[in-house]
Design a protein that fits this description.
By secondary structure, the chain is mainly α. 65% of the residues lie in helices and 0% in strands. The protein has eight helices and no strands.
Length: 280
Amino acid sequence: MKLSHLNDIKGNINGLPSYVYTGYRLHYSHWETVKSICQIHNETINIWTHLWLFCYVIFLFYRLNDYSDIHFYNIFEDKYHFKLFTSYTSSLIASFCSAWTHTFYMTDFKYIKYPWLVDFGGITFAIYFSGVGSTMFVFDGNVKYFYLFFTTYQYYRNVTGGITRHISITKKTDESRTNLTEFMETFCMSALYGWVIPWYYGYLTGNSVESEIFYQLFDTILYLLFGGLFLYSNFPQQKFPGYFDIIGHSHQIWHIFVNIAIINFCHSASMLLKNKESNI
């Protein structure tokens, strides 16, 4: 199937990668778009990084039988099972929504007017949901419920602001939606309230079981921040135009670091349950 140049794109298509000029799937049907998953274009790596991650997390769910008797009926049995469930489930939601959006965002869907809202809504909810697990694991007594109310309110403000911005910018060119805006909307605020604050509190009070767990989660934040630098700077495609359109542009590098961060996050949650059951 033929790929197009940026100059061939007419109309307002939100989400085009910055400073990427070739490799676009233009005028593909829905079925052609599905088949393009196995085609080489400027979104191939973005799609497959999260498709692979989605399949890998399903495998992690299956592998739980090796060291745990976790089932859907006992996910509320204790905070260890609930933390693991929220971590894995949030990873599934984020990877699926991102893979779906990068596959179909250039296709006209009658019932989905703003396809990037799927990506934004899915990822922010995933971070919030994993943060619920962190909150219930780390905080004690009624403090956890007060903090949960606080984070829910912040998540609501973040999402409503993001939805309004996504809808307004979809009506015009993509230039008004910067990479920094995307990074701050999707990760910074959600990660701050959902991950950083509760786990740092747990580290200070000793409720995070082991300092090693905190440091692994700290690594997760560092991976996201480092990937965000590429996303914000549009490196390397801005510095070397035309050389990284298909493979190696900043959004693809961002996806790779997100994958590393999520795998590290899931591994940390698995360690919690392993340590708990080894001490029984």
